[in-house]
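**User:** My hope is that you can spare some time for a protein that puzzles me. As I understand it, each token names a local backbone shape. I would be glad if you read both lines and explained how they fit together. The protein I mean follows directly.
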Amino acid sequence: MIRPPVPLSQFVLKVHARCDLACDHCYVYESVDQSWHGRPVTMSDQVIVRTAERIAEHAASHKLASVQVILHGGEPLLAGRPRLRRVITELETALQGVSSLDLRIHTNGVLLSEEFCDLFAEHRVKIGISIDGDRMANDRHRRYADGRSSYDKVIRAIRLLRVGPFRDLYAGLLCTIDLANDPLAVYESLLEWGPPRIDFLLPHATWDNPPARASTAGSEYASWLIAIFDRWMADGCPTRIRTFDSILSTLRGGESHTEALGLEAASLVVIETDGSYEQVDSLKAAFDGAPETGTNVFEHALDFVARHPGIRARQQGIAGLCETCQKCPVVQSCGGGLYTHRYRTENGFANPSVYCADLTELISHISISVHAESAGGPRAPEHTLSGDNFRALAAGAGGSAAVRQLIEAEHSLRRGLLGQAYQAGMAHPEVSGEVKNALRGAWALLTTLDREQPKALEAVLGHPYVRIWAVRGLEQAALTAAWRGTGNQTWTPRSLATHLGHLGAIASAVAIRARMGAAVTVPVMDGAVHLPTLGRLALTGNAAAGPSAGESETARVSVITNAVIIRVGDAHWTIDLAAMLAGEPSPVQVDGTSRSAEWQPVRMLRGRSYCIALEDTDPFRGCYESEVAPRLTDAEFARWQNGLQEAWQAIGREYGTFAAALGAGLTTVVPLVPAQEGRDASASVRNAFGAIAATLPADPSDLARLLVGEFQHVKLSGILDLCDLYDRADDRLFPAPEGEGKFRIEELLRGTYVSLAVHDSWGEPRKIGPGPGADKARQPPAQWRVRSLASIETLLGSGSLTPVGSSFVEEMRRSMTAVPGAWLA
């Protein structure tokens, strides 16, 4: 028997059709349905007014005591306060005397401010915020399009709601489940923010596009939720969790609290920015056009929409389910799961949920727990460049404030990459279960440390080669399977596991800096146990028998109250914790082994206005075209210390305006092996922000020029992480002035940007880094200036610059032309 239509009482208003984040699990923008492309960006006045009238008309017709309206998107806050106020007041006016209005807004939180909260407080609008756990869990998916973290802004929004005048607006937190995230770490991090309710959402998936899991018939999502349920019960249910509340309610014969569970008739309709009515918008994950009804607010009453076959199908209770579901013992609680998750191309929605095994196991576990209990059983920065800092950087020098903004953005990017590398390892079929367990342990430690000792994590994230490691790991994970098929032995599953295992070394270094007890498995690479930012334990004897043996070994790093214990096989060494943190070559105690080892700390080059790591230990520092030097002797280090002191004085004299930025952003120098002809060399790479590689010139002024010039490349790399300055798909070659050769757009931009630093010196310009003009090492300043201005004109005329890029290069031109008269000498 077909049930009659149920009145619609829940309305999702898509007030804005775009989003300021680029979450890779978003069903609106990342699923098969891409109808958002054709929608107006914002709901118009006409749509707002007609929508309010239609809802009031429907509520009056069916004598609804209340209706719920959820302001949604995209990101609804992008609509702005005036537009949101118009939506709210039109709804209130239309429903006054007709039905009570339960108003809510679902936001990613990054734009939430006191001004928005004042508006919502005035109209009693409840606020729900999306966040996927702690910083690392959240940054794996909820990032800006350029990879920047959204976490700090989301935490700022939650703090705004958690205490003070807006606490009554706090509706709760929504978290999309990711199996790669530790469930208890996610639960604890969300609980820390005191939410009135947490909603754990299964990732939208269908039988055509099933969810990520270790095996096709697995129930990993159940295991993930069960771990939280058991902890939640043991904690005394400190907050409401909608999935658990719904299952507990339906097991006792009550109603469900979510459309994803239970047999209640659906009463929801979505209204898009153009006024179109749609079914539940999660259907966008099923197939292109799945949510469409062919109706709109201008031509159709909501009674007509309620009779749509797609909406009626979600109102038929057990009769609307497939035969398998109808016979299932947990159907009263499960209800077939979310309608979207049943879809298969061959037979539409006449299937159990693609999460069937998970829902069965979860509901069964909760049912057993309830019976046991009744029988007495147990029960967080904004990563954009300000206008002033953008102009300062474009002018050449930048200053310390601008560089600090680049550093903050870089740390955020490294957090995201750390999570992506972890996810790649956990999902890769060539990584063994043992290695995945080690990765899981390292990740859990990092999330705990991030929560309890964030400064220690920031110190390690400041290391330039964390990003090199993460980027290479992602590339290697993507290519391993293809390379295995070719018989190439350069990359193997073992070396991939060793590479990804460095996550444990990163976690160990953070734990050491936090002085927090931990025990972590890390790989032995190149005959050493590496602890980023701290140094390495160089092993000799059997530990360095060869690359193959070295890469197959692992070490256990244990952090205790006053020492770090490193075990490799039967051998172990103890290093004083305070000495390690001070960068001292602490004596290593060796017990019961013939193996020998030497602790080699990262040594610091120190001056009154700088503290720079001379990095000759990190295994990922060899990312430059030139060969990096091996571990320096104490005498060689002393020469670097003296050379840099004199070079820094030269920087102050000859490059005064560039000194502040250099002092703020240069964290690491990697010694290079001198070329055979004895020429000085320097280098920087795109993914190692803050680091420069160089030989040590005999003349301190030459070292000053190397550092200043290469740091221009470093700054520009940071800028390019935040701003699209040119069309990255443009691979044309542009002629450099006076027949120097041809360069791609980024090469031309880099060479010209370096020239801004060269011109700051009153001495003779010399070769600094790659780019046009690099071979003209001894030209007079006036001639160098003419050539650089010609390069700027080539850039501006290329047609490849974005509007932001054009502004950047225009500022470069203003800086180069607004110089003292001595330039023209």
In short: The CA atoms of residues 736 and 791 lie 6 Å apart. The two ends are 95 Å apart (CA to CA). The first strand starts at residue 10 and ends at 14. The mean pLDDT is 85.
